[in-house]
Write a structure and sequence with these properties.
The chain is mostly beta strands and about 120 residues long. The chain has no helices and eleven strands. Helices cover about 0% and strands about 55% of the residues.
C-alpha cells in the first residue's frame, strides 16, 4: 500500500520557520512529481509547491520567495522549508505524489502548521 508520511508541523510565531518532511513508500519515488498542498478550515485545498522528477519547481504566488521545496530521491523524501511564516500560512499541509500520465495520485495524512498572531 502506498504511504506518504508527513512530519515537522507545529506552532510557530510570525516570522519563524519550519521544515516539513514527507517520506514515501511503495512508489517508484524518483519518477513522481511531488508536491505540498494546504487546507484551512472552510477553505479549498490549494497548491503550495511542486517539484518534478527532474527538479523543476513551481510555487503559489503567496509563498514564492519564502518557501522552498526540495527532494532527496535516495531517501524517498520531499521537503518544504518554510521561512518568514505568516498567520495566513496556518493550515493542514498535505504531501502529494502524482504521475501524470496516467494520473496516479496519492496523499499523506497531513500535518498541522499554526502561525500565531
Amino acid at each position: 500500500q502506498v504511504q506518504l508520511v508527513e512530519s515537522g508541523g507545529g506552532l510557530v510565531q510570525p516570522g519563524g520557520s519550519l521544515r516539513l518532511s514527507c517520506v514515501a513508500s511503495e512508489i517508484i519515488f524518483s519518477i513522481y512529481t511531488m508536491g505540498w498542498y494546504r487546507q484551512a478550515p472552510g477553505k479549498q485545498r490549494e497548491l503550495v509547491a511542486t517539484i518534478t522528477s527532474g527538479g523543476s519547481t513551481n510555487y503559489a504566488d503567496s509563498v514564492k520567495g519564502r518557501f522552498t521545496i526540495s527532494r532527496d530521491n535516495a531517501k524517498n523524501t520531499v521537503y518544504l522549508q518554510m521561512n518568514s511564516l505568516k498567520p495566513e500560512d496556518t493550515a493542514v499541509y498535505y504531501c502529494n505524489a502524482r504521475l501524470i500520465p496516467p494520473g496516479y495520485t496519492y496523499w499523506g495524512q497531513g500535518t498541522q502548521v499554526t502561525v500565531s498572531s
